[in-house]
Amino acid sequence: MSTKHEQIMDFIEALSVGTRISVRGLAKELQVSEGTAYRAIKDAELQGLVSSMDRIGTVRIERPQKKNIDRLTFAEVVNIVEGTVLGGRDGLHKTLHKFVIGAMQLEAIVRYIEPGSLMIVGNREQVQKLSLEHGAAVLITGDFQASEEVQRLANERQLPIISCSFDTFTTAALINRAIYDRLIKKEILFVEDIVSNQQLAVLHRGQKVREYLRMVEETGHARMPVVDDHDRLVGVLTARDISEADPDANVDTYMARQPTTVSLKTTVASAAHRMVWEGIEILPVVNNRKLVGVLSRQDVIKALQLMSRQPQVGETIADNVLRGFGESVIDDETLSLTGEVTPQMTGAVGTLATGSMITLMEHSAILCLRRNRSVDMVVENLTLYFLKPVSVDSHVDVRARILDFGRRFAKVDVELFDGHERCAKALLTTQVLER
After folding, report:
1. pTM above 0.70, yes or no
2. Is residue 54 included in any domain, yes or no?
3. 428: left (phi over 0), alpha (psi -120 to 50) or beta
4. What CATH number corresponds to the domain at position 282?
5. 426: domain range?
C-alpha cells in the first residue's frame, strides 16, 4: 500500500496545469494532516510540479523540460520582480518566451509583440491593451496600477498583468539575470538526464540468495538493490554480504539496510563523488522512496566525458576567473597557467580572493593530470598555504607539478607566483574515476 505522501504526490501530478492548491484544501480533500500536505507540496515544488507565490498561493505548473529550462513561467516572473498580480491569474502557469520593453511608438511596438511574450511598460494604458490583444502578458513598472478595462481584458485572455515597484531597467535586468542563470543550469547534468531503468535487475526481499547468485552471473553486477512489494528500496546486497550465506536463505537477512542512494535531482558530479568516496560501482536512484533506476560508474563517466565536449551556454564564476589565462607545458610533470588578476577576481581590499585562487590552482592541477592520462577525476582534498597577498592587475603564474599518479589517486603540488615571488602553495589530492 502506498504511503500518504505518495498518494498526495500522485494527486498533485494528476491535477490540470493552472489549478491552484493550498495546504488546508489538500489536507481536507485527502483526509491527511496539514503537516503531511505541506511536506508533499514542498516536495512537488522541488520536482517542478507546482510553483508557490506570495499573495497568490500554489499553482500546478507544467514540469519544465530540459530543452525549455531557459524559459520562465509568468508565476516565476512574479517572484523574481516581487510583483503583484492585478489580473489574468489563470495564465500564471504559461511560459515566457521573450520580453519586450515598451519604450516605442505604438506603431513600432506591434512588430515586436507576439503570443507568449511579456511587455515591460510603465503607465501607458494603450500599450497595455495592445499587448493583451496580441497575446502578450504585461508587467507594469514603477508600482503603477492597471485600469479596470485592462484588468478585465487580462482576465478574458487569461494573460497575467503584473505590477512591481522597480523601474524598467532594473526589472529587465532581474528577468535577464534569471534567464541567464537558467542557461547555466541547462548545462548541468542531473541524474534524471542519464539514468535508465531498462532491464533493471532488482531483488525482492522474499527471494533467496541462490537467485541473487544467478542474477550476478546474468548481469555481471555484484551489487543488487532490494525492494519490497511496492518497489520501495529497502536495502542493497553485495557479494561480500553473502560470502558465507546459506543459498536458501532470504536476501533481506544479509542485505545492507541503509544503502547510499541518489535522487533524480542529484547532479552527476555529486553522484560521481559519492561513488568514488564509497568505493561502489552502482548507485540506486530513488524517487519518493521508490526505486526508479540504477546509476553505474560507466554511465557517469560517459556523461561527464560528453559534457566536457559541449559548448558552455552561460558563464559561471569559474569561467570568469579562468578567462584570459593560458596554459603552457614546462615538462612531462609540470604545467603552467598564466594570466592577469582582474577586479572580478579580487576581494574587498583589492587582492586575489581565496575562491579565485583555489579555482586557478584546482584547474591547473586537473589540466596537468589530464595531459598525462586521459581519465575523469574528482578533487578529494586541497590544503592551501598563504604566503603573500596578490594585488589586482598582477600577472600571475600558477605551476602544477605531479608528485604521484597511481591507478586510484593522484597528488599534485601547486604554486602561485607573482613575478618571481611565491605567493601561495597548495597540495591537491584527487580520486581517479575508472571504468
Report:
1. no
2. yes
3. beta
4. 3.10.580.10
5. 317-433
